[in-house]
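Why do we bother with holo predictions? Because pocket geometry can differ from the apo form. Keep that in mind while you read this record for flavin mononucleotide.
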Amino acid sequence: MKTRITELFNIEHPIIQGGMHFVGFAEMAAAVSNAGGLGIITALTQKTPEDLAKEIAKCQKLTDKPFGVNLTFLPSVTPPPYAEYIQVIIDSGVKAVETAGNNPSKWLPILKENNIKVIHKCTSVRHALKAEAIGCDAVSVDGFECGGHPGEDDVPNMILLPRAADELKIPFVASGGQADARSLVASLAMGAEGINMGTRFIATKEAPVHENVKKAIVAASELDTRLVMRPLRNTERVLTNANVERLLEIEKEKGADLKFEDVFEQVAGVYPRIMLDGDMDAGAWSCGMVAGLIHDIPTCKELIDGIMNESTAIIRKRLEGFLAG
Ligand SMILES: Cc1cc2nc3c(=O)[nH]c(=O)nc-3n(C[C@H](O)[C@H](O)[C@H](O)COP(=O)(O)O)c2cc1C
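The structure, written out:
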């Protein structure tokens, strides 16, 4: 399939693996890229810029296909050394960056000077238009159903994607709730030129996370995610567990007075315990409603080939069949 996204990133299939904390290691990115999609290493999971350089080098050994690096710009009292992470990306020859969180305008000139394509992930049309205005090459439009941070507008993809299509000139991918060929064909119909998947890629053979995490996603239904940290305007969609329910109780007790310190235990530093140790009640970890559509743990190649083959069948048989009728 050829779209402006496959052309932009020089990939075979219009499928991107979104940056994921403690999931987006070299093994994950290489498996997606080897299967013809765009794999993404998550920069901030690497403690230092030197560690990121090593992770990129490892990925380059595992694949000769293009892959990217996610840079998440978080509000922080002591921000990570972003300039150094970016220098590592430039020096390593990586040609695709997924930015997320705060406006990446400060970093765009240096990325563009080095011929790096930038796709910015955002949860609203106004932020997507801003990304276009500051020179991003593409955007990843993240609907309310997404795993991770859906923003505070709560607009699901059935509305958000056609709205983005009406306003944007640069290409965009649909992110959030994407799992299979139906997702891809529907997203293309609504104006996207590809899809970005997070949760679906965690439940794959190559995802470098504990088996318990994959099993939890397969076991979960579309009713099992919760929105946490809404009172802090830092909403995150996570899979429910004992500690998430505790967090929601704390939110109820504190009401408008809630402070980050009140939920620190449930959210801070829990990713390694979940993703590496498989301690599924350790705290809040991002997971999309799309868990309800995930029933197996295929290889990335099986997953991506399946999506592409079935998409052809949906377009050629089901959709064209309606016209023929
Ligand atoms: C476990 C997990 C961790 C994530 N970590 C990040 C992150 O560090 N930075 C980021 O930009 N997005 C992060 N995301 C969001 C994904 O890149 C992607 O936008 C989202 O998962 C799409 O929704 P889906 O899960 O319904 O496919 C994360 C998602 C998950 C599930």
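The longest strand covers residues 67-73.
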